[in-house]
Amino acid sequence: MMTKSSSLTQVSRLIAAVNEEKPNTVRQRLKEWYQSWKAKKGEKRSTLEVSSCFAPLLVWVISLLPIDLERIALAMDATTIGNKFVVLSINVLLAGCGIPIAWSIVKANEPGSGQPYWQKLLRQPKEAVPNGWTVIVPADRGLYAPWLYQVIVEAGWHPFLRINQPGLVKISPHGRWQPLYQISKFLTDIELLKSKTIPSNTR
Known about the structure:
Layout: H1 8-19, H2 23-34, H3 54-63, E1 71-81, E2 85-94, E3 97-107, H4 115-123, E4 134-139, H5 146-154, E5 158-161, E6 168-169, E7 178-179, H6 180-195
Parallel strand pairs: 1-4, 4-5
Antiparallel strand pairs: 1-2, 2-3, 6-7
Helix pairs in contact: 1-2, 4-5
């Protein structure tokens, strides 16, 4: 966030300036931090399970928000890097930016569904959200499925998922299925009526 870049060089320079260290020393330490234990030097080296940092990371981001805010947006995003990888991430939306607080990197052509990855990503930061907070979860149109809706609702959060217009909706369990465009038009008409000033004959 502070370097406005995820470059190892930029991050190393910032940390070095704050801690009054040499940039190359910090760079080497960071490289060993994210490498597997086999690639590290020394007998007591271990692998960091990065997912263990997701909840603490969200706690830190929340601590920077106004005390009386009590609401947060956790956006889902899938970014393809060339034809090799897809980065699945959960991001805190703040001041026009997305701050990643949970992520998973998968092969771009990996067979199967992204369901297990998203289920894990959505459940990991749940414990970090204060009780009573309102959480909305927006996502792009391509990220929609009944199981995804269910996982978000089970967390006590509000799904803001984009769905295709040809879909159907049923307002009540015993009602009839109706085209989505009819419902959206109905709701739009209600909002228009609310926005109009209704003249009063009382004096």
